[in-house]
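Researcher: Let's do a round of design. I'm pasting the structure tokens now; please hold your answer until I've finished.
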């Protein structure tokens, strides 16, 4: 039997509703799609497609039963304050893996081929000859080898870098040496030339990029964080860059995006900031994934990529 029509609320501070609403309306012709703030009566909202909670929070929607996240990460939805009955699915868009891999490969190659140093030399008017080294001598570690990390680790390995992956549960990835759990973190970090963070932000991973972790890396290692800003203890990064423990950092995510204008990262010569652009769901393909999950939920079928509310990702 056809389910009665329902109302779907769309809210994002990142994604453009004019890209999403027409596609969702075509794919879900029987549902009413409303773009916040034009939400109508909050009591009529059944489902939501969100990057973050709309102002006023989700308690305003007493009938809301399912949230499809526009982000692969879901920490920005503040899962802890959502009613326990609310089910949440995250974005797994196959187009995002290669996009993330490309971002991380670009950042790793920039360090491996010493473009960072060449940029500094040029600015100082120096012709510094730094001989290139083979990628075989530049081990890269990827923290988090889930949907995005696995594609990234595999792409780095295909480029000739020795690659290690670290996850919560043991994993096996072709061409990647895998480590799991806290007990294997020191072995994972030992000797890395570059560390890439693609973890979800949870109570376990908040602040994981800190002085104690940096001290396990060799002097002159590089950090690339495209997970979440709160993975990083910013003061510890500044200290590690000052001491030479770390030689540079590429940060796509920050505690505050954008950071305040007086933030030391803006003008730090060893920090490269990018504005949360590493990977983004493309409405062209991802709108049908969202519509499919909504239809699954409506038919009481298992939804795809449901978030484990206890685990937080
Ligand atoms: P997944 O859930 O598919 O993968 C997460 C990985 O992290 C898994 O391998 C998981 O281990 C591992 N992990 C989680 N907690 C721990 C822990 N405590 N210790 C060790 N490993 C852990 O997520 P995605 O790959 O889809 O996305 C990862 C993150 O990337 C997102 O949560 C988001 O924060 C960020 N992101 C950033 C974007 C950007 O543009 N900068 C774009 C999209 C995402 P296990 O396999 O054992 O579960
Ligand atoms: C994210 C995303 O989680 O853009 O950052 O999907």
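Researcher: That's everything. Go ahead.
Model: Designed sequence:
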């Amino acid at each position: 039997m056809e389910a009665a029509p329902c109302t779907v609320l769309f809210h994002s501070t990142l994604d453009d509703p004019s890209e999403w609403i027409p596609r969702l309306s075509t794919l879900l012709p029987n549902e009413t799609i409303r773009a916040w703030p034009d939400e109508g009566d909050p009591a009529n909202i059944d489902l939501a497609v969100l990057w973050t909670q709309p102002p006023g929070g989700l308690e305003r929607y007493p009938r809301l039963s399912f949230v499809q996240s526009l982000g692969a990460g879901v920490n920005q939805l503040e899962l802890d304050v959502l009613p326990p009955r609310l089910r949440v699915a995250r974005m797994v868009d196959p187009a995002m893996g290669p996009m993330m891999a490309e971002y991380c490969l670009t950042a790793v190659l920039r360090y491996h081929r010493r473009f960072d140093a060449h940029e500094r030399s040029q600015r100082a008017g120096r012709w510094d000859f730094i001989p290139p080294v083979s990628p075989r001598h530049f081990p890269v570690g990827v923290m988090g080898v889930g949907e995005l990390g696995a594609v990234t680790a595999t792409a780095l390995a295909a480029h000739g870098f020795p690659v290690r992956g670290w996850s919560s549960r043991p994993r096996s990835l072709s061409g990647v040496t895998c480590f799991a759990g806290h007990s294997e973190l020191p072995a994972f970090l030992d000797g890395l030339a570059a560390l890439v963070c693609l973890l979800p932000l949870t109570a376990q991973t908040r602040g994981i990029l800190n002085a104690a972790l940096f001290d396990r890396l060799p002097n002159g290692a590089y950090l690339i964080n495209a997970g979440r800003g709160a993975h990083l203890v910013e003061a510890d990064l500044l200290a590690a860059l000052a001491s030479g423990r770390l030689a540079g950092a590429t940060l796509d995510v920050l505690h505050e995006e954008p950071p305040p204008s007086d933030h030391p990262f803006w003008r730090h010569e060893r920090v490269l900031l990018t504005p949360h652009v590493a990977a983004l769901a493309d409405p062209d393909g991802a709108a049908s994934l969202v519509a499919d999950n909504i239809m699954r939920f409506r038919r009481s079928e298992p939804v795809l990529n449901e978030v484990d509310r206890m685990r937080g990702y």
